[in-house]
């Protein structure tokens, strides 16, 4: 009981502090924003721990952060191997192939309005499909190692990216196009100097969506067959062994890699599309 | 017609490629079988055999279509052998998750726009929540909801589906509720409008286009969530469960049919949401 | 059928006994592997005992041990290695009955892979189920002195999904199969029995006990629960014996209970006839000799034994003795 009360008190205190921080001048600074967000995250962990201890939840149902933390620390080599297998080999390879293919395909069909009109509705439709369902098929086709995981990721990210990229290539101002025409710029020049840069905000939007899809795809595919390493493998095996601390450790790594990937793309985006209004401070 | 032509051409090309791929991929098995039987086959003999295998690597389109047709028409739609029934189960789960996701997304967006502390503390975590692969959480959600006494297997599915669908709504709604510009806000404050009034008369109407735009993304996400929820956590009914059973019992046709049923369901849902969006736009006087 | 059920229900009411609720968590999806329980349900055996039984199908991500720990079931169908491993993790599961006498697990290899004896496994890729089902395989490999970490001279382990594709696509030299299920999928796929080599765990002397009924130790202390389980085991075993004798009818009952509607009659009928071979010879009581062999196999020397010490109190005859009187 005392755990529950303690956790609730902590929550209230942290919340009150956050309200004050948010209203203060410190809250407007970058450090302030991070502090508030971090404090909120810590509150969630404390509440979780308090609930688990307060209700005496069995560690094979839901372990508390105090169990998961040490587990992460003590299984770093395993977690690292899983990370390499699933994120680097599976998700990132697939992500890179899918992104490059979408980029190339968008440019390839750029000169053919006919193909664009044909591919866009289909691309839009396919982006909305539950592609995850293809995972067992692709595992059957490409074998159980990371290649099949990368294939799932490629299929998942290709269409959202293609649609975004095609839309981006068409997103130039009349004014800008006219300017290029007065310069008598060639197709390649127009593409490189005007249309590709103009398409970048759209492309990065697509990349951000695709980044989360990539991890989901790679992990789901591991449920349908994998070598004995990988995050999806770890999760499904450890659930069966009641090693819930390991499951949550893997989930934490997944969240961390997902956030890192997202952050990395956002960072590159801010460098590449520094001119776009949304990047202005 | 001018709009349909390109799409039909591309679709035609896809089907042609599909047939070629089916021949190419299924041929290995025919050759292997012939080798095991100690006979040789010519290419002309191989092709028809790749079109009608019981467990093809890639079933040709007509095989999938036939299985789909059988799943829809061969029995009463209330039968558990009917794809319509399983489609309905998935549809129900999707709708529950979708509704839950909308409520959650809108409520959070309102709180975030109203309270700065909510924005600072919740928004970053909402983004991080989407980077957690939901499949990893699915079994956890199932056991935990079991533990707290929720026995209904629809609920965990709806939670997973809501988890994926709330985010697009949240992001769009925050944008939408913030879309009124300073002039408009200033006007209301000269009228002495209260917070509540500003919200009802300005922010809410201004956010509606954003809201409807986000629904299309959210419904697709809700469907993915439902299928992921059906795939590993229960495997009892729904299109996701049929994919799993099809895969497990070596009945690829069942799996493909379920996959296409899911695609058709997705198409239908997006069409309906698009229709609602257009109706709402028309009522709000947005030029078509 | 319906009339019969109503009559049984009325009889229960007449005697004034409240129907007792029992929730059973299966290890896997609805299939003939669990026919006994479905038969006992459909034939009213549970009702005759005054039980109201709910059967929950399992799935790839459902660990029965976790479900029972979370209070989602009173009794679960589980394999002994997973149950003992859970016991070591601090979840005191007790076997109260063992409807499966023999193990149905085996490794099925393509003859063309050149494997003829277990010694040939070295440097080959073998498909294994995980999720708690890997323990028998790991202990067998450690008895063969084959490393499973992928190092040279050992075996490469692949976590196979839920089907036999890795063998058909030649991604693995051997895959795990059950005599009553996956083996026949390989045959159905068009590979002749003569093109296959099989190694049954039972024949290799490394068989571990499969489908048993497990409950939480603390619940057994309660006489009311104990009585409920006695009734449950009695009715379940009646269901099993009925299923053995009427395999086709049992398969049809299973099919009626399959909510995915994707299972086929031919699969289930054949599965039932194969399962009947495994349940034959068990009256429900656990055979201590089988138990000792399972424990010995799991403790067997090797880098990573499944359990570190011989468990105590992991099974009891208290329930089955009373049920079988």
Number of strands of chain B: 0
| Beta-strand fraction estimate of chain B | under 5%
* CATH homologous superfamily title of the largest domain in chain B: MetI-like
Q: What structural category characterises the helix and strand content of chain B?
A: mainly alpha
Q: What's the CATH architecture name of the largest domain in chain C?
A: 3-Layer(aba) Sandwich
Contiguous uncertain segments of 5+ residues of chain B: none
Helix share bin of chain B? over 70%
Q: What proportion of the residues of chain C form beta strands (DSSP E)?
A: 15-25%
How many domains is the backbone of chain C divided into? Answer: 2
Helix content of chain C: 40-55%
What string gives the helices and strands of chain C in order? HEHHEHEHEEEHEHEHEEHHHHHH
- The shape of chain C, in one word, is globular
The count of DSSP E runs of length 2 or more, i.e. the number of strands of chain C, is: 10
Structural class of chain C: alpha/beta
For the sheet with most strands of chain C, the description reads:
5 strands, mixed
Q: How many separate helices of chain B?
A: 11
Oligomer description: heterotrimer
How far is the N terminus from the C terminus of chain B? 20 Å
Q: CATH class of the largest domain in chain B, anyone?
A: Mainly Alpha
Give the low-confidence spans of chain C.
1-16
Give the CATH topology of the largest domain in chain B: MetI-like fold
Outline the structure in words.
The complex is a heterotrimer of chains A (281), B (288) and C (325). Chain A folds into two domains: 2-57; 72-279, MetI-like fold (Orthogonal Bundle). In chain A, 79% of the residues lie in helices and 1% in strands. Chain A contains eleven helices and one strand. Chain A has helices at residues 2-23, 30-54, 65-74, 76-108, 113-127, 135-142, 146-169, 174-182, 187-223, 231-241, 244-272, and one strand at 225-227. The longest helix of chain A is centred in the C-terminal third of the chain and has 37 residues, at 187-223. The radius of gyration of chain A is 23 Å and the shape is flat. The mean pLDDT of chain A is 85. Chain B is an all-alpha fold and 288 residues long. In chain B, helix 3 (61-73) packs across helix 11 (252-283), helix 4 (83-114) packs antiparallel against helix 9 and helix 6 packs across helix 7. Chain B has two domains: 4-53; 83-283, MetI-like (MetI-like fold, Orthogonal Bundle), CATH 1.10.3720. The longest helix of chain B has 36 residues, at 195-230. Chain C has helices at residues 2-14, 35-42, 45-48, 64-69, 80-88, 135-143, 165-168, 182-188, 217-220, 223-245, 247-257, 265-279, 288-299, 318-324, and strands at 20-25, 51-56, 75-78, 93-97, 105-110, 125-128, 156-160, 174-178, 196-200, 212-216. Chain C is globular and about 60 Å long. The model of chain C is unreliable at 1-16 (pLDDT under 50). Chains in contact: A-B, A-C, B-C. Chain B binds chain C through residues 29, 33, 36, 54-55, 57, 79-82, 85-86, 138-139, 142-144, 146-147, 151, 232-237, 241-242, 244-251, 254, and chain C through 29, 57-62, 66-67, 70-72, 161-165, 168-169, 185, 188-192, 195, 258-264, 267.
